[in-house]
Amino acid sequence: MNDRSRFLVTGGAGYVGSHVVAALRDAGHEVVVFDNLRTGHRESVPDGVAFVEGDLADRAMVDSILARGPWDGVLHFAALSLVGESMQHPLRYMEANAGLGFILIDACVRHGVKRFVFSSTAALFGQTEDALITEETPIIPGSPYGESKHMVERALLWADRIHGLRSACLRYFNAAGADPDGRIGEDHRPETHLIPLVIDAALGRRDALHLFGDDYPTPDGTCIRDYIHVTDLADAHLAALEAIHERSVVYNVGTGVGHSNMEVIRSVERVTGRVVPWHLAPRRPGDPARLVAGADRLRRETGWTPRFTALDEIVETAYRWRLAHPHGYGAAGDA
């Protein structure tokens, strides 16, 4: 995108959202972040980016913000995102992800927004025997989290057919790493993502890591995931914005290479030079054995390609962020 555009980013103070906001700002665009800060961090929003604290459940506020158009597009990241939690509270996930997503889509239609980029998930696919998951792989969500994201994808399909709202649904696999320049990084409370958990275990900042299951049908018995650097993921969002000028698209976003949980532990040990303490725990409900993306369509249609292809490269940026920000965006003692 060469021309200066104006974008609204929901959940733009969260992990992936903040990296996309930084990429948009670096590209010279005007960005407004809308976030309730329940899991996001005000400190992650770059200088020069407008910030509005609020919730998608507040329909009047959503309408008020979209009425401040025109907008060249909306990028939607705001969501609950824990597979395990969704297995305990399925209706909460349906309401927060699908229900509030419908509110936002409806408001975008009424206010004349023409482009919508949706942060979807590889959790749509559940268990599969496919070596690589493509956009044609059958959608069989293995959790209410994945189901709630699929419901939003379906709503966007009909919003395009009936109202002309062009959308990109980006189904990503495991976002990881941190901004290479160290400006922003990963800070979940509590942290649930594997790479920062392994790093903190190596640094002695947490107890021994729980490794959930070693009896999966994989070479070392642990789950395999496609880890994509969060900066590459941000680049994919900008590429998707270009792709939907004329039509809606659905893209898987990943590297096409899977790494097991045990391989992540070994990578962290190589990068940090420390031993990672861990012990075995039972499987978690809803965890597929293998999720690896076939992202050829995205590469072919947009020219996007990941810059961080080695697991150690991804881990190294996450490690530098954890070292420089031992308490994330907060101060010592913050929850």
Short account of what is shown:
Its cofactor is NAD(+). The chain has 335 residues and is α/β, with parallel strands linked by helices.
Q: Please give the count of helices.
A: 10
Along the chain, the helix and strand elements come as EHEEHEHHEHEEHEEEHEEHEEHH
What is the CATH homology-level superfamily of the domain at 6-172 and 229-247? NAD(P)-binding Rossmann-like Domain
The parts where pLDDT drops under 50 for at least 5 residues are none
What is the CATH architecture term of the domain at 6-172 and 229-247?
Answer: 3-Layer(aba) Sandwich
Q: End-to-end span in angstroms?
A: 39 Å
| Helix-residue proportion | 25-40%
CATH topology of the domain at 6-172 and 229-247: Rossmann fold
Report the CATH C-level class of the domain at 6-172 and 229-247.
Alpha Beta
Relative strand content: 15-25%
**What is the count of β-strands?**
14
Radius of gyration: 19 Å
Mean pLDDT over all positions: 93
- Placed side by side, the strands forming the largest sheet appear as 3-2-1-4-5-6-11
Shape: globular
Describe the largest sheet. 7 strands, parallel
